[in-house]
Amino acid sequence: LEQQLRQAERLDSLGQLAGGIAHDFNNILAVISGYADMLADELDEGHPSRSDAAGIKQAAARGAALTRQLLMFSRSEPSQPELLDLNTVTSDMLRMLGRTLGEDIELGTVLVPHLPPVVIDRSKLEQVVMNAVLNARAAMPAGGRLTLSTSLEHAGDGSDQVCLAVTDTGCGMPPEVLARAFEPFFTTKGRGSGTGLGLATAYGVVTDAGGTISLESEPDRGTTLHVRLPAGAAGAPGVSPAAPGAPARAG
Ligand code: ADP
């Protein structure tokens, strides 16, 4: 537990630092992007330097995407927790992601009906799911099966947890990667394709909502990311069951 606390503290101060830098950086990138636009406007259609200007804009956009992730990771975005049905969020995400995953991924869901709601910021939860799905996709370069399953777990102390598992049949993680996967900026992906912030951000989002997140992985067999959130509105200050955006149905 002490180690977990130390880890959380380190994540916090790293996050504040990252957030400050990311904010300034975003402004700089906006200026770069603006000048690239102006440059492109001043060049005639077909001028060879127009593609250079487009290249600058593209790189600035990549930088902006990275700083967005940094800001997200630093938790400087305010949270707006609401009552959500995990099944609904999962199916919505699936509909959105299904097309982008590619034909070589067999997509499936196992949804346990009538789950109690969870209390969490919707866009942050979507970010967690999206990142897990993209990690799963990246772990299956030659295709495979991706399953999103929900379930309800009864803890020993009588509290219920609503769970989401994202399972892939990909490359899995050797123990040394598994041990560090939640560390900010830890990535095994090449430069430009991985930030190492996906799981660290997910860790922050889920623990802020009172939940837990864990990985189970076996090399060459695959990986499951488990997200567990406390069931119901209990313990979530400021969120009433009648909060706007509360789902009208429960599964
Ligand atoms: P990134 O995806 O930018 O590398 P993450 O924090 O999301 O950052 O993941 C950190 C590392 O954990 C990845 O680089 C990868 O090595 C490993 N990882 C995460 N998810 C999976 C998965 N589903 N299968 C195999 N390895 C994974």
What does it look like?
The chain is of the alpha+beta class. Helix content is 45%, strand content 20%. It contains 6 helices and 7 strands, in the order H-H-E-H-E-E-H-E-E-H-H-E-E. It has helices spanning 2-42, 50-73, 86-101, 122-139, 175-178, 198-208; strands at 81-84, 105-110, 118-121, 144-154, 160-168, 212-218, 222-230. The strands form 2 sheets. The chain has a 5-stranded mixed beta sheet with strand order 2-4-5-7-6. Strands 1-3 form a two-stranded antiparallel sheet. Strand 4 and strand 5 (160-168) form a beta hairpin. The longest helix has 41 residues, at 2-42. Bound molecules: adenosine-5'-diphosphate. The site of adenosine-5'-diphosphate has 23 residues, from helix 4 and helix 6.
Low-confidence stretches: 240-251
Question: What is the number of strand segments?
Answer: 7
Report the major sheet.
5 strands, mixed
Quote the beta fraction: 15-25%
- Shape descriptor reads globular
Question: Structural class given helices, strands, pairing?
Answer: alpha+beta
Order of helices and strands: HHEHEEHEEHHEE
Strand order of the largest sheet: 2-4-5-7-6
- Return Rg in Å: 20 Å
Helix content: 40-55%
N-to-C CA distance: 35 Å
pLDDT averaged residue by residue: 85
Q: Bound compounds, please?
A: adenosine-5'-diphosphate
Helix count from the secondary structure assignment: 6
